[in-house]
Every structure is written in C-alpha cells, then in structure tokens.
Amino acid sequence: MTGVPVPYRVTRVREETADTVSLTLAPAGPAGLARFWPGQFAMVYAFGVGEIPVSVSRIHRHQLVHTVRSVGAVSAALCALRPGDRVGLRGPFGTGWELVRAAGQGLAAGQDLLVVAGGIGLAPLRPVVLAALAEPRRYGRLNLLVGARTADDLVYADQIRAWSTVHGPLHCAVTVDRPTPAWRGHVGVVTTLLNSAAFDPRHTTACVCGPEVMIRATARDLLHRGLPAHRIRVSLERNVRCATGHCGHCQLGGVLLCRDGPVVGWDRACSLTSVREL
Amino acid sequence: MSSSPATAVLDRNGLDALVEALRAEGRTVVGPTVRDGAVVLDELTAAGQLPFGWGSEVEAGRYRLVPRADGAAFAHTAGPQSWKAFLHPQREKLWSADRAADGRVSFAAERPVRPSYAFLGVRPCDLRAIAVQDNVLTGGYYRDDGYRRRREGAFLIAAECTEPGATCFCVSMGSGPAAEAGFDLALTEIVDDAGHRFLVRVGSAAGEAVLSRVPRRVADEETASTARNAVDAARERMGRSMPPVDLRTLLGGTLEADRWDDVAARCLTCGNCTMVCPTCFCTTTEDVSDLTGDHAERWQRWDSCFDLDFSYLHGGPVRASARSRYRQWLTHKLSTWYDQFGSSGCVGCGRCITWCPVGIDITEEAAALHDELADRLRRQDAEETQR
Ligand code: SF4
Ligand code: SF4
C-alpha cells in the first residue's frame, strides 16, 4: 500500500552543513518499504507537520539515508529529528538513474560515467557513485564533478575528500562559486571542471542533478562536446503531494515527474526546462 | 416483440418506479434538482424532484433558469456541479497517525465507506468525464482506492441531450450528444403529442435487472426514431465549437503565443473553471493534528492550478504569472493530458465558460491561438519565399 506511510526509526543524524542533515532510517516494524533504486525518492512524513519528497542518498540493506535541507516547515521538522524519533515513509517512487543492473546490460553498460552535481544535488547522485565504485568493471572511467556555493555548503565533505585523494578508479573534482581564504581548490561553476574529466563523449552516460540553471548549463556543454541528449540523464524537481500520479502538482508539460521522473533524459527535459514558468 | 428487448419506453410513472426500484436496492439516488436558482445535483427520494418544467439559459459568464411549458425533466444544460462531487469529493480523509507515549508511531488507512450510488440523468459529456477520471485515478500503476470504491458501486443512468446550451461543444470533443457507452441505462426524453415519455436503452446486466422491475412497454418504432431524430437535431444545434484542428498539436506549439498575455489580462485566477470542470482532478493534502499533538490526520482536498501555492517550490511558485497559470490549465486540458493519460482532458460540457466570472471562453481562446499560429506560419512562409 503506497497511500499510507510505513513507520521508520531515525538511527543516526549527521550534520552535513549548517542547514542540511542526513537521516539514517530503519523500519520501525517488521516490514519496511520495497527496495529503492538510486535516483528514486520517498515521501517523508514529519509527524503532524507534513510530507515532502526526498531522494535516497544511500541505500544500505533495509536502511535508507535521506539528506534534507531545511527550507520549509516540513524539512525544518525533519532536520530537528534525533535518533530514536519516528517518521513515516512512502515509496519507492519515480524513475532511477541508468545504472548497470547486471553486467553488460543497460544504457550505461561499459560506458564512461560522468556524475555532475550542484549543491545538495549530490544527494541523489551519491548512490550512483557508490554503486559504480562497488562494481567499477561494469563501467568505463568514473568521474564525479561537484560544485557548491562555498566550501561550507559541501555535503558529504569527508567522503569527497577521501574520493579525491585516494587514487582509485574515480576521478573526483570539486569547485566552489565563492572561495574562502582557506580554499585551495577550483573556483567557478561546475562546468569548468569538465575539461579535467576523463571521458569519451561518444561513450559516456552523464548523471546530472542540481539547480535547474546548473542542469541546463551542464547539459548544453555536454551536448556541445558530443554527448547524445538521451545519454544525459537529469533529475528534476517540482512540488509533489501524492507521488502516485493523482494530485497533478508535479506536472512539467506532459510529464508527471513523480511517475515519469524525477530522472529524465535531456532529449525530453530540454524543451520542458526552456519554457519559462512551464 | 419486434424491437430489441433491451429497449423500452417509460412514462412518468415508470420514472417514479425506476427511482423507487433503485432505492429499494439500497442505492442513494442522485440527480438534478432545482435549488437556489440553479439545477444542482443532490439525493432524490422521488423522481418528482427532478427539474420538471425547467430549462436553463447560459452564456459566457451567465446562467439562469427558465420555465418550460412542456414540463421536460432533462431539458437543462450542465449545472455548476458535476458527478465528481460524489465520486471524487471535495474533501476526504486519507489516513490517521497516532504516537504512543514511548514515541512509536502507527498509521491507519481510512477505510472509505462503499456507497451505492445511482446517478440519474448523467449527460453524455459527463459520462465521458467520468471515464476520463476513471482513467486518471484508477487506470495507472497506482489506484485511488477511495475513488475506486465509490465508482465501482455506482449505477449510471444517462440522459441524452436534446436541448444543448449556448456554451456546449460536446460534438467538437466527440463526447455527445448521444450516449454511446459507459452507462447502465440510457434515457432519451420525448415530449410530444403522443405524451411525455422516455426511451430506455440497456447498457449492462445490472441495468437490465433494474429495468425488469419497472413497469414499461416495449419500444415502438415511432418512439425510437423520434428519440434518434431529437438527438441528431441536437448535434446540429451546438452553441459552440472548437476550431477544427488537432488541438493537442495546436496547444503544444503555442506555448510562447502572445494570446496568453491577452487572456491573462482578463483572467482573475479565481479557479472557478477548475472547480466546475468535471475532469479536473487535482488535489492537495492537509496535515492536521489535535491539541495533544499525538493524533494526526491526512486530508485530501480539491486544489486548483490557478492557486499560487499549487506550484510552490523552495520559496516561491514556479508559475507566478496569470499567463503561466491559465496556460497550464488550457494546455493540460487540450494537449498534455494526452501525454499523461492518453485522452483529451476536455469533454465539451461548457461549464468553465458558463461559470467564469469574466466570461473567458475555452473555445474562443483555442480559436485565437489557432489564428495566431496560422498567422505566424503565413508570415514565416512569406519571409522564406522572399529570400
Ligand atoms: S474544460 Fe470546460 S468545457 Fe471542457 S470539460 Fe472542463 S469545464 Fe467542460
Ligand atoms: S478562466 Fe475564468 S474561471 Fe478560470 S480562473 Fe480565469 S477568471 Fe476564473
């Protein structure tokens, strides 16, 4: 039953930035939700306050991690939760990223993988990075490019640091818009990192999430480099109330984002994001 | 017995008996009745409550009842309500949640009652609208359980249209004035020298069973052909029509048209059109909790794409301008509905025209968009030939 939330218990709260926390959630009863795929989202209910869509930022057996930025009443209530507190979850909802489900199968099979994140847009992409690192042989070269407003706005900073320094199969680069005096890294928008990444545009699948302007700029740049539009996968966001395709809120033209998204190909998303106030 | 056994004729007493038979089955009979100067939909305890002797005069932004000398019951056009008020009610509780002293939380689905409705006098356009909502709310991967329960128990008696109103355009949308499918029984009302009577066609086994309990006579050729002719004549008397083009393509190709500014200057973004539209299904949710804070409920209520909050995302609406909100409504009705649900979202009932306080007319807006597009293409052509 997708209409009624399933109780989950907060097992861990991790402060990512000044306004963002990651909640680790485990089923409070014997049964949890069906397995999530990277890119899918849950409707997370704060008791008595309301419910918002949040992508999974980590899937660990029955446990789910949701990274929430405090921007409204519900997200503020979720950010204030402590271990032991309960939430309600519905899901999994929506389309996921085009990861390789079995060796050699799927859009991204054997392809270079290019993960481009802006701000908290890294949250739904972290499971992509983790899945690719778990089975790097299914892909070509792996790239993670992250942009944030300032170094303090970086989520998963420790993990990123580890990925950046360890010489593993992942090329990881970070840039900030506004450097603090202590910042030693790149400065500028995330597309400026594309030259540093190792990928063959004819054999690459890109996964992009962040503010819509950042998604558009990245997709345009990648098209220019020769990536076919359908291999540029982007995760879009709209208001969601029901997540079951019945409330009409998540419409973006002919797309119902809770059902046909949030992950869509740029072949479809391009025209949808180029009309103002669509 | 020359004509099909599935076709019969009822007189006024037969209509009374039909309502009684449905009520005897335990059904709540809902149909049109006159109240506060309009034909509204409400529970009927007897057929006598139907709007006998009332017609309606409608225009863009205008509606009034007019008495009719012929005493017809189904000579009025669509009123301010539609059947969605019963199948997809304005407010509905979805579930409740309780928090125990130890912090544990439990959720309980609201088990919606399964009403047993009989809708008497469903217009063909509204019959189509019910089919459209069926598809939206129960035709996809997820089903709206409350809707499904109410819908499965509903018995539908169509009333074909012989008196279309000035805002009607069901012919353009292919949804009327004849009732072709989706009913249990279909009535066609006839008032002439031979008397006041109703041709009845059977559309389902349940319809046949109910009809068998009602005094009737076998349909004679004359009554049947009079009924057919009246519906055919109605086809020629539509008050309005859509431009005869592919509306889906038209609306898909006019997102940046100037006409949206023109309509936005008139539109009050009041949302009336969405409330009266029989296919508009959008809802929002309300989360409430009691004073202890340990009992909470989730309610669903109708929402409108004209509401600023509808598209709210991180601190502001995506569709802030009236232009973008009217465009969302019209393109959804006529175009993107196909992408989402495989059909048009408009059935041509004309309610949005009648109940728009400033008389904005969906057919006129579509025609203006078509003219603007045709103009633009002509100019482009001219420029190209000059080059
Ligand atoms: S859009 Fe207007 S004419 Fe079409 S179904 Fe809705 S209310 Fe009726
Ligand atoms: S079109 Fe008319 S009814 Fe609809 S929102 Fe605008 S003013 Fe209100």
Q: N-to-C SSE series of chain A?
A: EEEEEHEEHEHEEEHEEEHEH
Level of helix content of chain B? 25-40%
Query: Which structural class matches the secondary elements of chain A?
Result: alpha/beta
Q: What's the N-to-C terminus distance of chain B?
A: 74 Å
Which band does the percent of strand residues of chain B land in? 15-25%
What's the mean pLDDT score of chain A? 94
Q: Specify the CATH architecture of the largest domain in chain A.
A: 3-Layer(aba) Sandwich
The stretches of 5 or more residues of chain B where confidence is low (pLDDT under 50) are 1-5
User: Into which percentage range does the β-strand content of chain A fall?
Assistant: 25-35%
Describe this structure in words.
The complex is a heterodimer of chains A (278) and B (387). Chain A is an alpha/beta fold. Chain A has six helices and 15 strands. Chain A has helices spanning 73-79, 126-134, 157-165, 212-224, 257-260, 266-274, and strands at residues 6-17, 20-27, 41-46, 50-60, 63-69, 86-93, 112-118, 142-148, 170-176, 186-187, 204-209, 232-235, 251-252, 255-256, 263-265. A seven-stranded mixed beta sheet of chain A has the order 10-9-8-7-11-12-15, sandwiched between helices. In chain A, strands 1-2-5-4-3-6 form a six-stranded antiparallel β-barrel. Chain A is globular, with a radius of gyration of 18 Å. The two termini of chain A are 32 Å apart. Chain B is globular, with a radius of gyration of 23 Å. Chain B has 387 residues and is an alpha+beta fold. Helices cover 35% and strands 24% of the residues of chain B. Chain B folds into two domains: 7-235, no CATH class; 247-386, no CATH class. The interface between A and B is large, with 42 and 54 residues. Residues 267-273, 306, 356-358, 360 of chain B line the site of one iron/sulfur cluster.
